[in-house]
Design goal:
93 residues; flat; alpha+beta; 12% helix
Length: 93
Amino acid sequence: MADMKPWGPRYLTGTKLPRLDGVDKVTGRAKYTYDVNLPGMLYGKILRSPHPHAKVVGIDMSKASIYPGVKSVFLFDKQTVRFVGDEIAAVAA
């Protein structure tokens, strides 16, 4: 260990490092990004395809756009989804 160089590619491999945030995480005092709530903050949601390969016949976004609190709706420009999880539409509210 005495001949290890601190600039080597793996000089920390196999060494124990203290977890500085461990106590805060265990006691519930840690602040995660999900816990942050700022005034005027928007939340987003993406509609994803549940099908591995499908043709998008039509999506009516009119109800989503007039819903109270919705700031923006976005329809991805695609006629065919190629995999499960492919993005179709998004809403920010």
